[in-house]
Amino acid sequence: MATPDSTAAPTSSAASMQRPKGNGGIVDKKLAHTTQELNAQDEFLRRHIGPSDAEQREMALAMGYESTESLIQATIPDSIQLGESLNLDGPCSEVTALTELEGIARANIVAKNYIGLGYYDCYTPAVLRRNVFENPGWYTAYTPYQAEISQGRLEALLSFQQMVMDLTGMTLANASLLDEATAAAEAMTMLFRVNKKNKSNVFLVDHDCHPQTLAVLRTRATPLGIDIVHGPVESLLENHDAFGSLLQYPGSSGEVRSLKDVIAKAHEKNTLVAVASDLLALAVLRSPGSQGADVVLGNSQRFGVPLGFGGPHAAFFATREEYKRSAPGRIIGVSVDRDGRPALRMAMQTREQHIRREKATSNICTSQALLAVMAAFYAMYHGPRGIRRIAERTHRMTATLARELSAHGVSISNEAFFDTISIHAGEEQNNILERADTAGINLRVDRPGIIGISLDETTTFGDVMELVSVVCETLIRSVPLTRKSSQMLVFPTRFNATSISCNTLCSTSITRKQRCCAICVVLSRKT
């Protein structure tokens, strides 16, 4: 209720702030703030749970130093100290920092990528993005050490292992590795350990393997005394005695070839064989395991994991049952609990941090659990038929691109392919790349005069025609060089891709009765 004095001037601190004193300063000094406090520059620091300044000083004193600065000075050699302060701007708030980072991120040019080499655009189903990728219950956990409270995570990783086994045709798979290149390095070192019949230190790498894989293999091989020999494996086997070899299936150039003969030839010389492959391609190609491979590895990125400007992505690693004690990474197994019910656990762990150093087979990060879970859930979401349908559609788009380019006089080097073709650009290579850059397209330069193009799940019929216009400089009036063109065209209800070498139409599902398109040449060999 109002009182007679309710209209009088207020005497609260708020009122005192309104009355200037002297040169206009604030009367209530309890409300005065420093510039740093007004700019909220210490908000993040106040929430940080690390040791306070006082606690840091206390720890330094316990070690015989007056401050952490004096401890650092005594620890770091003068020869590597900068000797002067860094020329940095003053601190800013967390919100300001995030705003600045967003501005930097907007400088990235987001183009349509057809580079391939193990990295492809894909669709992440909304249910995976919301419930797994953006769910801290999944993305914050590192390792399911406590099996009794990690059954769901272990079951997801077990599903990842089973998916890899089904697609690769192998009898054992681990719960993921860091990436494809390091998985290849792990395969090399494992074959070096398990090959008791061939004591050579030579490892053969086929010329059609991804360049980043070759680079990592050379780095890992140097301290181990392994000699990397790079070239066509078929001819290398004639001239080298090797403990192991690596093949790419399909190759970096996109070439798909049968592995059976070259693997058999390698085994005759006691050379074990690792195959780097593509999970989506294996949905329609004959599995490396059925062709005699000893190890199958690769990248599961295109199973629903965003590109993320190059990573991270989960690798897969599958091998024979007889090599389980030497396989890298973690293997999830099924056991029973005290009540006789099925229970999941980490059956094998081969990293140094988990077991005794002398027993370890690997000392790198041996899992990408979140991304392996996403790949497994992506496969569950689509199911076997859905995965095969995506693979078939991707190939048919590639066959259409090959057909159209061939019709415009472009020479294609691939005899058989899945999602990647290599074209002979010759002296037009730079002109094609300039037109692609103008259109917001990234193509792959394999070597002088050769351009690689890899399609994926997101490729549309409009994208294919845009690529044709970029490569051939054919101004297809209905498909201008803009990113919107792929959204303007309607994919035909009935679409039949033809081979570049014959006129037979592909059926809705790839047929094995006729060699009607390039990939069917390989599929027709499948038993």
Spatial ordering of strands, largest sheet: 2-8-7-6-5-3-4
Uncertain residue ranges: 1-26, 475-527
Helical proportion, percent range: 25-40%
Instruction: Count all strands and give the number.
Output: 15
User: What is the helix tally?
Assistant: 18
- What structural category arises from helix and sheet content? alpha/beta
Q: Work out the radius of gyration.
A: 30 Å
Terminal Cα span: 93 Å
Averaging pLDDT over every residue, what do you get? Answer: 83
Strand portion, in percent? 5-15%
What about the largest sheet? 7 strands, mixed
Shape: globular
Task: Describe the structure in your own words.
By secondary structure, the chain is α/β, with parallel strands linked by helices. The protein has 18 helices and 15 strands. It has helices at residues 13-18, 35-38, 43-47, 53-62, 68-75, 94-105, 126-133, 136-139, 151-168, 180-194, 211-224, 233-239, 260-268, 369-407, 429-438, 461-472, 485-488, 518-523, and strands at 112-113, 172-173, 202-206, 227-231, 244-249, 272-278, 295-299, 315-319, 330-336, 342-349, 411-412, 420-424, 441-442, 444-447, 450-454. The strands form four sheets. It has a seven-stranded mixed beta sheet with strand order 2-8-7-6-5-3-4, sandwiched between helices. Strands 11-12-15-14 form a four-stranded antiparallel beta sheet, covered by helices on one side. It is globular. Residues 1-26 and 475-527 have low confidence and may be disordered.
